[in-house]
Write a sequence for this structure.
């Protein structure tokens, strides 16, 4: 599905500029009317005998108190032409104030609507952008929010925004939602693409997913991009486009179903640990320079985690020429080095031990 023209292509800067223009117009009219009438009344009244308006300062003061409907009465026109101008000015002022207030109220109301639709952009950093509202994003967005990640969502249609918000209304987190054509740069810029850490492309259309991934990789070649593909035969095409990971839920679902056929408890375990919303979870932590875990053996690290009530270490990720080798149940004598990824199984509180005690950073 494609976004409707017009607002769908508006950037956050465009939306703010539009509202600024709407507010600037009545302010400009106010200043023009105020100064124009002040100069006119000064020209009419300044040379008259007994005039209360003898200089431009008097004229500006009279124009201001009349426009504001205060009317102190200390300065007023004495000539017939001056009073005629003042009468018209007073009547115009009543209409003018109503017009100005209506314009400002309309501008603020429109800004509120644009903000509700995500048209004003966001200032998130190191967040995850999810492109597309689908069966996959319906599951992954709550998971990301539950794991403490800030999430920007780009929907294809405006009516999907409320559905996204409802999917995480039971969770506390930082969520931004907008809508538009995800294949265009303007819409992704609204989601603050340049400051994002990861982009998940998960629309129901493989063609849109491919175009979006190519556009993102072209502008941000180092961006981590995860793509959902409905047709497994397109996996190689997506791999060639430079994405970080291609997810085919039908393949994963098929494996889970096969496992459930003869080892149902394993399937139940996988279902439990694949979610971070409740129960146990599999999380990964990166060993940084100077970390307590650096230089420890797998055996020592497991003993340390057990003693502190931490999670179970089940696998590690070792860097290998720009990619990663995943080693399940690593050797007890293997020494942990900087850059190694530790994959652990445990409850949220247990996994926190790696951050609080060992100083490790979750994720990569």
């Amino acid at each position: 599905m494609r976004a409707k023209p017009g607002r769908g292509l508006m950037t956050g800067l465009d939306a703010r500029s539009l509202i600024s223009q709407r507010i600037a117009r009545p302010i400009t009219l106010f200043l023009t009317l105020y100064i124009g009438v002040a100069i006119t009344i000064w020209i009419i009244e300044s040379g008259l005998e007994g005039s209360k308006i003898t200089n431009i300062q008097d004229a500006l003061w009279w124009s201001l108190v009349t426009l504001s409907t205060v009317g102190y009465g200390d300065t007023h026109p004495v000539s017939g032409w001056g009073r005629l101008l003042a009468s018209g000015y007073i009547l115009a002022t009543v209409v003018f104030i109503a017009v100005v207030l209506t314009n400002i109220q309309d501008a603020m109301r429109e800004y509120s609507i644009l903000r509700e639709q995500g048209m004003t952009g966001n200032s998130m950093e190191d967040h995850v952008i999810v492109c597309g509202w689908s069966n996959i994003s319906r599951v992954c967005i709550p998971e990301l929010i539950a794991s403490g990640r800030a999430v920007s969502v780009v929907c294809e249609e405006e009516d999907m925004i409320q559905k996204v918000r409802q999917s995480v209304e039971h969770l506390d987190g930082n969520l931004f939602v907008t809508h538009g054509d995800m294949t265009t740069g303007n819409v992704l810029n609204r989601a603050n693409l340049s400051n994002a850490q990861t982009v998940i492309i998960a629309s129901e259309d493989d063609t849109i997913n491919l175009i979006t991934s190519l556009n993102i990789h072209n502008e941000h070649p180092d961006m981590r991009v995860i793509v959902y593909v409905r047709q497994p035969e397109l996996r190689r095409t997506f791999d060639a486009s430079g994405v970080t990971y291609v997810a085919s839920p039908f393949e994963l679902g098929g494996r889970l179903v096969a496992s459930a056929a003869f080892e149902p408890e394993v399937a139940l375990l996988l279902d439990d640990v694949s979610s971070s919303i409740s129960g146990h979870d599999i999380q990964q932590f990166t060993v940084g320079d100077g970390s307590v875990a650096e230089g420890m053996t797998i055996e020592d690290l497991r003993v340390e985690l057990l003693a502190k009530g931490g999670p179970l270490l089940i696998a590690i990720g070792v860097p290998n020429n720009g990619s990663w080798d995943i080693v399940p149940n690593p050797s007890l004598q293997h020494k942990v080095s900087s850059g190694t990824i530790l994959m652990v199984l445990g409850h949220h509180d247990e996994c926190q031990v790696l951050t609080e005690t060992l100083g490790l950073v979750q994720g990569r």
